[in-house]
Write a structure and sequence with these properties.
With 324 residues, this protein is an alpha/beta fold. Helices cover 38% and strands 26% of the residues. The protein has two domains: 224 residues, P-loop containing nucleotide triphosphate hydrolases (Rossmann fold), CATH 3.40.50; 72 residues, Alpha-Beta Plaits (2-Layer Sandwich). Helix 3 crosses helix 4, helix 5 packs parallel to helix 6 and helix 8 crosses helix 11. The longest helix is centred in the middle third of the chain and has 18 residues.
């Protein structure tokens, strides 16, 4: 469904060439739900715009829905839907009329476009809003309308760029309910960008992490967390000196081959990355007692995708460089 090799995109900023995307190799099978995750400026949206023919690649190749994005952009557009970060609807027509007009733009007869509009109004819970103008809708309602506009021509592949950004938690959950309903109803491939870690973790079948214009990790969320981050144990001690001793003990238990950040110390808190944390915790506590250290508190935790990013880059995905 999506096949890219060496996909790059350069921009000229103040007479200097800036490479926003640095050689993306990607293969996405039909029917998958893929989330592209990364900080602001990582190249997510630029990649999406190249795949949807909105930006030409500087170099490399991309075949989307069986057609080359450079040589045959018209056929690519006929087979895909695209929901950008900004609202797609105008302000001059009612919601249902917007959908009918979109269908007419794709060459449908008025009757066919009207039937398709009614189908989407029901699927996306917009029936009660059919006679409203887009400007009177809430943020979540407008995003559902945007998705409906992207589905009018029955695409086999739907691209969504940050579909829930700026929405409150309830509206975000509602948007995801409808995204999953669309997928179930049409069996389409969904390819989306997001900076919400929990969305990628719980909703996507495959997570692609991008940083600095490159793919730095690719797989299921569970596999990435297990292979690249691992479980962790967190303890607190009475003094910073005991914490330093606890860190020395912890380093003897760290997963083989892990980097130096497998054990971190912050004041009296020690955090250890280790496989099978629930089983490892009693072993660690016994080793601490033998070293003369008594843990004040101790807990285990499962890794997050932020832990994966931290392991790969040394910084957090939740840093201030993420969009609000």
């Amino acid at each position: 469904m999506i096949h890219t090799r060496g996909l790059t995109r350069d921009f000229t900023v103040k007479k200097e060439t800036v490479r926003a995307v640095r050689g993306i190799d990607l293969d996405v099978e039909a029917g998958r739900l893929v989330a592209v995750l990364g900080p602001n400026g990582a190249g997510k949206s630029t990649t999406l715009r190249m795949l949807t023919t909105l930006l030409p690649p500087t170099s490399g190749t991309a075949v989307v829905a069986g057609h080359d994005v450079v040589r045959d952009p018209g056929r690519v557009r006929a087979h895909i839907g695209y929901v950008g970060q900004k609202s797609s609807a105008g302000e001059n027509f009612q919601v249902r009329d917007e959908l009918v007009s979109q269908g007419r733009f794709y060459g449908m007869t008025t009757a066919t476009a009207a039937g398709r509009a009614d189908e989407l109004l029901d699927l996306l819970g917009l029936r009660a809003l059919a006679r409203r103008r887009p400007g009177t809708l809430s943020g979540g309602q407008r995003r559902r309308l945007d998705i409906a506009l992207g589905l009018v021509h029955r695409p086999s592949l739907l691209f969504l760029d940050e579909p829930s950004t700026g929405l409150d938690p309830k509206s975000r959950a509602d948007i995801w309910e409808h995204i999953l309903r669309v997928r179930e109803a049409y069996g389409m491939t969904l390819f989306l960008t997001t900076h919400y870690l929990e969305e990628a973790d719980t909703m996507a079948e495959r997570v692609v992490i991008v940083d600095g214009g490159r793919i730095i990790a690719d797989g299921t969320a569970e596999r990435l967390k297990n292979d690249l981050a691992g479980d962790h144990i967190t303890i607190t001690t009475r003094t910073e000196g005991e914490a330093a001793t606890a860190a020395v003990v912890a380093r003897t238990m760290a997963a083989p081959g892990t980097s130096g950040d497998a054990v971190t110390v912050d004041g009296t808190t020690v955090r250890l990355r280790v496989p099978g944390a629930p089983a490892a915790l009693p072993v660690y506590l016994r080793a601490l007692e033998e070293a003369g250290v008594k843990a004040v508190t101790a807990e285990t935790g499962r890794p997050t995708l932020d832990d994966v990013f931290l392991t790969l880059t040394g910084r957090s995905l939740t840093d201030e460089d993420l969009p609000a």
